[in-house]
Amino acid sequence: MSTLTNLTIAIATVFSATSFAASEPIEIIPAAIITNPDKVELGKMLFFEPRLSKSGFISCNSCHNLSLGGVDALPTSIGHNWQQGSINSPTVLNAEYGLAQFWDGRAKDLKEQAGGPIANPKEMGFSHELAVDTIRSMPAYQARFAQVYQKDGITIEEITDAIAEFEKTLVTPNAPFDKFLLGDKNAIDADAKAGYQLFKDKGCVSCHNGPAVGGTMYMKMGLVKPFHTNNPAEGRKGVTGKEADKFVFKVPTLRNIELTYPYFHDGSVWELAEAVNTMADIQLGQALSENETKQMVSFLNSLTGEQPQIVLPILPPSTADTPRPVPFAN
Amino acid sequence: MSTLTNLTIAIATVFSATSFAASEPIEIIPAAIITNPDKVELGKMLFFEPRLSKSGFISCNSCHNLSLGGVDALPTSIGHNWQQGSINSPTVLNAEYGLAQFWDGRAKDLKEQAGGPIANPKEMGFSHELAVDTIRSMPAYQARFAQVYQKDGITIEEITDAIAEFEKTLVTPNAPFDKFLLGDKNAIDADAKAGYQLFKDKGCVSCHNGPAVGGTMYMKMGLVKPFHTNNPAEGRKGVTGKEADKFVFKVPTLRNIELTYPYFHDGSVWELAEAVNTMADIQLGQALSENETKQMVSFLNSLTGEQPQIVLPILPPSTADTPRPVPFAN
């Protein structure tokens, strides 16, 4: 074969792969581009910082565990004093792709989200004031904040900004499905390919689309048939006050869904196959055959990407000025 | 200067440094030598594995946090259902150098220790049987155990063996004081040098010696004057049944003491200076001047070594056979 022919085939392959990917409703997740590594490193320290909680025991990573797909793998989370959380902890992986944060979208971005659990009495149980006092009390943090923000003083704005900057790096590129989208037809098996076709044909993709395969819109949980749950969460209604927003939640990402069980905002379903069937039933009014369910699960499992490689941060020691943790008393 | 003279000086320096180090009651901490990296990696996964607890929320790292000097930095730990632990969590760093494990030495080694908290109803609240069922339920763990142990089946023996193998790597070499011992006279400042001299002259070193600056013996807490505490722990008496062992505890390591506050088995003292003065008083019947205390603290801070660089493990997903976590109900 001539070099020219080889070149032509190569170009044709790239073009065809690119146009295939471009025409699909799911987009690849690109690797994180880190423009400010010092801010990311600072944010990582804060993400793993249990002294941002009243008890000194709970960090962001406690409920968004980066060893476990960015979740705690519990129906609802454990908060200060072992309080039971009100909703399933969503994954922090690829969270930046959400149109807003929390199941009800009440935080507009990751920065605004990061301030929530710190001050929530059922979660980390602290206050922004004490969080700032804590971080400010340690010279090593002072030096890092001064370097990153080029100003004196630390406020909750910088703390949550740094956490968000770290969280933006928590993406999971190179899932088998991404490789498939990019033209590697052997990256996923026949079941997964069939599952993807079903995912589009049945209409799942009308809500689960974009790079995160979700996160792009709000949708009613129980669109065709009601979703039965003991969980009292009403979703967007709590934010907008509108009755029409009752049970309307942010569509969750399906990236790494293999890792982020149990499923739904109430964490009531542990098996992915069951979650798929429930969704088909109550959102689309469809019943899947056993084989279709299997194919759909194969497709969903192909969305597990490369997990972030995190070197555990070493945190600076408390000083005499650091507010002491209050794990047990008031 | 002739080459021969240079060589002579070099040899003399090495010889002098070596003999200086050899004649001192504190020994350097060498870097970990990893002979079985697969076992260490498996042990690391298990160390960070919250599914070894009843709740699915508490791992070894929860109370021996490798971001925080291998401790939780709390007076006593938080266990299952937010139960208050009975004793201060000792650091896992350099723990292998202890003559036994736990404050009362009731476990003969790290392997025996590792089984304790998993099954302790006040700590991880699980059972060895459920721990084994959990690990066995995941194909990725099965493959790793088969590779490391070259046998079928997983028991609590292998689980705790792997955890111990990982923990043996958690050493902190190259502390400024180690560099000083090895001949770098500028590695620690004048206060630290004076503090070390005091540490020897006052008699601290009679208990705090060896590579870990502790861990080599048991000693009564309150040797000269009683130690006042509300903590009911009686130390070795609980193991041996002998009245003479009442309040006799394993001498804790002073390596990384800057990071492992609060101090003593009851975690009652937050400031290192206060801990030093209390020890001088109740163990040695001595009162230190303000300057002596400062020097002693400088010396102790020079014992902070290089912290282990840990890449957070990615844990395999649960399967339909994995016992589900029971965070809230019985």
TrEMBL record, chains A, B:
Span of domain Cytochrome c: 38-146, 190-304
SUPFAM superfamilies: Cytochrome c (SSF46626)
Localisation: Periplasm
Residues in the signal sequence: 1-21
Note accompanying the cofactor annotation: Binds 2 heme groups.
Top-level taxonomic group: Bacteria
PTM remark: Binds 2 heme groups per subunit.
InterPro entries, A to Z: Cyt_c-like_dom, Cyt_c-like_dom_sf, Cytochrome_c_Peroxidase/MauG, Di-haem_cyt_c_peroxidsae, MauG/Cytc_peroxidase
Pfam family, one: Cytochrom_C
GO terms of molecular function: cytochrome-c peroxidase activity; electron transfer activity; heme binding; metal ion binding
Any Gene Ontology CC annotation: periplasmic space
Main subcellular location: periplasm
Cofactor(s) demanded: heme
Annotated binding of heme c 2, by residue: 204, 207-208, 279
The EC number(s) this enzyme carries: 1.11.1.5
Keywords assigned by UniProt, alphabetized: Electron transport, Heme, Iron, Metal-binding, Oxidoreductase, Periplasm, Peroxidase, Signal, Transport
Positions annotated to bind heme c 1: 60, 63-64, 80
Presence of keyword ATP-binding: no
Name this polypeptide is given: Cytochrome-c peroxidase
Organism: Shewanella piezotolerans (strain WP3 / JCM 13877)
Lineage: Bacteria, Pseudomonadati, Pseudomonadota, Gammaproteobacteria, Alteromonadales
